[in-house]
Amino acid sequence: MERQNEYVLRTVEERGVRFVRLWFTDVLGFLKSVEITPAELQAALEEGMTFDGSTIEGYSRIQESDMLARPDASTFELLPTDDPEAAVARMFCDISTFSGEPFEGDPRYVLKRNLERAREKGFTFFVGPEMEFFYFGSAVTVDPLDTAGYFDLTAHDLGSQLRKQTVLRLEAMGIPVEYSFHENGPSQHEIDLRYTDALEMADNVMSFRLITKEVAADHGVYATFMPKPITGAFGSGMHTHVSLFEGDVNAFHDPGDEYGMSKVAKHFIAGLLVHASEICAITNQWVNSYKRLIPGYEAPVYKCWARNNRSALVRVPRSKTGKNESSRIEFRAPDPACNPYLAFSLILAAGLKGIDEGYQLPAEATDNIYALTEEERVAEGIGSLPGSLRDALDAMEHSALVAEALGGHVFENFLVNKRREWADYKADVTPFEIARYLGTL
Amino acid sequence: MGTLNELMLVFPDPAPPLLAQTLDLSGVRWKSVGNAAIAMQYEPVDGWTGAVVCADDDPEGAFTLCRTLRKGDSRVESILLLITGAQLHDLEHREDLFDDFCLTPFHPKELEARLRHLMFRAGRAGSPEVASYGDLVLNFETYQAAVSGKPLDLTYMEYELLKFFVTHPGKVFTREQLLSRVWGYEYYGGARTVDVHVRRLRAKLGEENANLIQTVRSVGYRFGQSRWPGATKPRDLG
């Protein structure tokens, strides 16, 4: 620990860093930043920085609003900059109370707590998300930069240039990218991050969203992670590839199994299917998230699993022969506007529950589930995800699993915040209603 | 006597009780090992500070260990040998295997004084502050790394991993070895963490230098050229 701090202090001095940003996350997954100068750095590393927690969504507590942001020196990273004279670095922080206890409302702490539970069982949790997003001309109107589609190579296309620059900047920051390409929607892009352990990946997702937006802003356009910005077009998901390792061994892999999946993997999937509705309010936390989760756009609606069916909630990608480390499952519900710390926590908690309880994996859904009638789906025992934020909140509110994994503070704050969002939405007269009703009623 | 990052090697395992107590009382951090293979496995990133090798019980094992510590990548510069008076003739023709010796049963104060003296001499000789490999230079004092003069932006663990590689070129390490020697045992990320960091280091080293860290299939990683020309060709960027 001391050596890490010394590394940070020396690097700041040697590299002429002018500002150090201390980053943390509110309950909804918005990035918060406190900027300090090198003069304040040593004290910040040793004692933490004081800030007023009552201004942060989901942190508020009337009796003790002052909190400490304690930088995690292992996350120290110089931010890519064009101006070497004004280098800026950042560190993620853990939040603690003045008495030194970890603050249970800190999403990073929630994830650490859940990872610790996995570790007690001998597992390390690895995550690789596919981040989808749109480029628009501005933040106020939906105006795509192009009308190309999936994998299209567009000449002199600004969006593709931006994507390339984003990838380079991510790589320079030590966030390796697996693939990137033009997605289905107009001006929609996807960048797949190479798997890391879940804590690092949650940090990476926070950095990723900022960098993507910054690169776009540098070119006068706007990048959005809104789950469904365009009616009738594909939405943006955050398909999340997950695996558990026991030391060097992929606990999801079993070469003798017809699907190449171990018992651990099957129980994990079963856990996800059983608890998908309960964790949905966290993996898909906005009113708008549920406009994406509808049939017809490769977004999951029904709680089933399959190998090649892209409308299934859980997909088991074919692992390359002989590469047992690539065995994984893909959970397709989350969208990129989630809080990654909380979303990864609940994906893990649901999967571990499946392992602990030995949940049985239902049969693979082979047909196109959308082609089935409601009765056929019921007969096969395939339920659907919540249809709205309100349904998702109802499912979450009664979930012991979610309450335990999030901890009481986050659980209650989140529900209060989201009930308010739903109430606002419900009271709003939408353009749909004006267009459909005003002229006829 | 020692600082936090210094670790003294002690033979045999377990260490004789009086030796263990003497080292503890003089504030030396130490680790007892039973043979050279285990010494390799537990070697700290910066190498062993020194070694106290007790030859009275198992002289063969002791001299074999000393011989190993004198060659190879993990050469130990300060070896204090403990022997009985009856063994003095064994030292003949083995002068290269130790730096000082002390007769057992020893007086704790004498052992402490000899150890301090050895450490002082080693310190005066100076430990290297800079290491380089091709265009890559690491400055251990400032914690900075640069390729062709251009500084690399590294996290602490990336720096530590690169430092380990640069100070152990040409040698193949398994993921477990890297994990235990660079991260330490308390780290819980698992062996895949090594892959993740190697991938990040390669990205930061840039395209031209990414293949400095080579994937050795079904074994682990090697930094730089193999010391065994003609050996199995590494697969780049696997």
Explain how this protein is built.
The complex is a heterodimer of chains A (441) and B (238). Chain A folds into 2 domains: 2-95, Roll (Ubiquitin-like (UB roll)), CATH 3.10.20.70; 112-434, Glutamine synthetase/guanido kinase, catalytic domain (Creatine Kinase, Chain A, domain 2, 2-Layer Sandwich), CATH 3.30.590. Chain A is globular and about 65 Å long. In chain A, strands 7, 8, 9, 10, 11, 12, 13, 14, 15 and 16 form a 10-stranded mixed β-sheet that branches. In chain A, strands 1, 2, 3, 4, 5 and 6 form a 6-stranded mixed β-sheet that branches. Chain A has 13 helices and 16 strands. Chain A is an alpha+beta fold and 441 residues long. The mean pLDDT of chain A is 90. With 238 residues, chain B is α/β, with parallel strands linked by helices. Chain B has a 5-stranded parallel β-sheet with strand order 2-1-3-4-5, sandwiched between helices. A 4-stranded antiparallel β-sheet of chain B has the order 6-7-8-9, with helices on one face. Chain B is elongated, with a radius of gyration of 20 Å. Chain B starts with 7 loop residues before the first strand and ends in a 15-residue tail after the last strand. Residues 229-238 of chain B have low confidence and may be disordered. The A-B interface holds A 2-4, 6-8, 10-11, 14-15, 73-78, 115, 119, 124, 126, 171-176, 194-197, 200, 245, 247-248, 325 and B 4-5, 142-144, 151, 153-159, 175-176, 188-193, 196, 199-200, 203-204.
The gyration radius over C-alpha positions of chain B equals: 20 Å
Termini of chain B, distance in Å?
44 Å
CATH architecture of the largest domain in chain B: 3-Layer(aba) Sandwich
N- and C-termini, Cα separation of chain A: 69 Å
State the helicity of chain A in percent bands.
25-40%
- Please identify the oligomeric state: heterodimer
Main CATH class of the largest domain in chain B: Alpha Beta
Shape of chain A: globular
Which structural class do you get from the secondary structure elements of chain A?
alpha+beta
Number of helices of chain B: 7
The CATH homologous superfamily of the largest domain in chain A is termed Glutamine synthetase/guanido kinase, catalytic domain
Query: Structural class from helices and strands of chain B?
Result: alpha/beta
Task: Determine the CATH superfamily of the largest domain in chain B.
Answer: Response regulator
- Summarize the amount of helix of chain B as a percent range: 25-40%
Provide the number of structural domains of chain A.
2
- Name the pair of protein chains with the most residues at their interface, and give those residue counts: A-B, 35 and 26 residues
Spatial arrangement of strands, main beta sheet of chain B: 2-1-3-4-5
What is the 3D form of chain B? elongated
Q: What is the CATH topology assignment of the largest domain in chain A? A: Creatine Kinase, Chain A, domain 2
